[in-house]
Amino acid sequence: MRDSEFTIKQEGDTIVMPAFATAHSHAFQRALRGRTQRRQTEPGSFWSWRGLMYDLVSKLQPEDLLDISRFAFMELALSGVAAVGEFHYVHHQTDGTPYDDRTLLADAVIQAAREVGIRITLIRTAYLRAGYRQDLTAAQQRFRDRTTEEVLQDVATLRSRYHDAPDVKIAVAAHSIRAVPIGAVKELADYARENGLPFHMHVAEQQRELEECKSEYGLPPVALLADHGVLDQNFVGIHATHLRDDEVQALGQANATVCLCRTTERDLGDGLPRTSDLLRAGVNLCVGVDSHASSDAFEEIRAVELDERSRTETRTVAAEAPRLLEMATKNGYEAIGMGAVWPADKAYLNANHPALFAGDEASLPDMVLFTASPAAVTGLCVHTKELTCLTEAGRVGVFAKYRTALERLGLI
Question: Which of 34, 180, 207, 212 gives a 20 to 30 Å CA spacing to 372?
């Protein structure tokens, strides 16, 4: 890696830095922001939030998904994000019937990113069941694949369709161990390995998930995946919040990646991951916006360190600014199969913004990563293209279409 690719530097009144990548996104969930914070059930939890999310899913139409995703990706661009991994699992019509074009909704999300001007990896996600001995809810019918063959058929369609697109990649995911039995997980992971694709999966996010996995298989999720040879350098585990010591070591030995989504994990009350233990074990870390509860890329990455300080009651315990920058940029791009292009994308910040004013060469990376916000971002360049959505004129239509989508869904 050349130093020039991996620096934050000031040029006059502008700070130039590598653009961020967010490796885990559910763009449609942006419509829920501010609408799930008040207690709906006793007690509030991830599972009660999930019910509210399912209500939204039951109403989404293709034009809604396009308009919401476009707005969500524009907001990421405003935060300095040039590449997103979209963990896509809303596939079918509201009654579960596939669209005539089976990838219609995946294409809508890809279109949204391309209209904004950022790169996207569409992570086609398998969802085969509600859980061990659990019936699918009505909303989950939109996620459901009958077989792994259907999943891989869609992956093949998308890979063919976007084969020559420099701004679009395709990857594979199993939603979770509760939604995809281990045999099917292994099939999907083997396909990803054989084709050199990233393989993503929610793992160990919730204590209940661990208990259900142990009830079915006798092991918690990551130990189960290790036992079946799923973990490798292509594997990206999302969250990995509740891990045993042997699971931390297994991820490191496999040179696997963990994607932390701290703003969403905080919002859902998921818990605190063992960040410093993961790093010591040799696990690659990156970050993701996940539910779009917040779209502040600076907060997302500094939370990796700051939340670990809260867990361990120690300062500077996980990562200093240079390593955080690597997680937020290079590691994120690599996790979504775009490792070859990340140095080409740049974010520009206002050096006279109060959070960054009067920084020197030594302190500038720390000021950017520990104090900046999207308000400091003045521009984003994806390869050689400046994004027009960062201007007020460029945002007007995106805002209007997003509001119309919320009105159609009865959210405003």
Answer: 34
Q: Copy the structure tokens of residue 202.
A: 């929610």
**Triad 109, 297, 65: Cα angle to 5°:** 20
269 backbone φψ class: left, alpha, beta (φ>0; ψ -120 to 50): left
Q: How many domains does the chain have?
A: 1
> Can you tell me the distance from the alpha carbon of 291 to that of 270, in angstroms, rounded to the nearest whole number?
13
Find, among 176, 189, 327, 182, the residue nearest to 254 by Cα.
Answer: 189
Dihedral of alpha carbons 39, 41, 44, 45, sign: negative
Do the beta carbons of residue 246 and residue 215 sit within 8 Å?
A: no
- Successive 10-residue mean pLDDT values, the chain, 412 residues: 69 97 96 72 57 86 97 98 98 96 98 98 97 86 96 98 97 97 98 98 94 97 98 98 98 98 92 96 98 96 96 90 96 97 96 94 94 97 90 92 95 88
Range of the domain at 118: 3-408
Q: How many helices (H) and strands (E) does the chain have?
A: 15, 13
The CATH number that applies at residue 255 is: 3.20.20.140
SS3 label, residue 206: coil
User: Are the C-beta atoms of residues 188 and 174 closer than 8 Å to each other?
Assistant: yes
